[in-house]
From TrEMBL:
This is ABC transporter permease. Belongs to the binding-protein-dependent transport system permease family. It comes from Rhabdonatronobacter sediminivivens. Its main location: membrane. The keyword Nuclease does not apply.
Amino acid sequence: MTLQADQQTPVAKPSQLARMRDSDLWHSFVTHRGAVVGACLLVFLIVTAFAAPLIAPQNVYDSAELQLMNARIPPIWQEGGRWPFVLGTDIQGRDVLSGILYGSRTSILIAVFAVVFSLAIGVIVGLAAGFFGGIIDNVLMRFADVLLSIPTILLAILASAVAMGMLPPEWRALGAAGVIVFAITLSNWVQYARIVRAQTSVERRKEYVEAARLLRVSPRRIMLRHILPNTMTPVLVAATLSFGMAILAEATLSFLGVGMPASLPSLGTLIRIGNNYLFSGQWWIVLFPVLQLSLLVVSINLVGDWLRDALNPKLR
């Protein structure tokens, strides 16, 4: 009786967290020092950026908190520095640390939306081109080739300048973030389209797709339910790596004056403002935003490099 009772006792299924901890991907992550350091640093930078209203000494969007009498204060460890301006202030009396936190949040949000929109457009175009082939493939890919023939930053500058010129003057400050997202998306969706097209061209010839066609499954369902999941691994790796490039693209556009305005600072805007005073002794105005931008991009690239290696079956 005891033996039968033991045999009938149901075995508890491991939780989702336990299965994740036992997976090869998790083991690859925890044994990869660069990935762990990059992930921890990235989480810290993102959390502090979005917690800026709680931890920043100053609200950089409130002009009432900016006082010219506090302008050009050096970092707290230098002579003349004072609390709470730990990293000093700029020429407008804006706290550099607060500007970095709020600016990082703006840059991260712009990069996230740019990557999401680029991914959505690229996946749709790549699926259509790879699945249907023929004239649809030729038209879509030739258009993508035209965009690839133009340097990415020049295409982004052109798109940003044209879009900003079409907006009424009173809307340009509020619409600057959307314009930058549009400019980055216009130049970045092509890489996803080419990856998905190449994967789709291989998958559509496999037996499971032919079986779905014989069962009269609609092309849309075949593409979204069967082919798309098998193409997402290289796309996710590319999206992770391009996240850092999108942050750099936003910083470049803002640095060149076709991005975020000074009233809504991003990391690129802070670097552009500080660059004007680099040789006048106020080095901290440009140095700390540059360090923040570098840390963001490096941490993203560390995670992206690990993800590329972990999801590559040839390296397992």
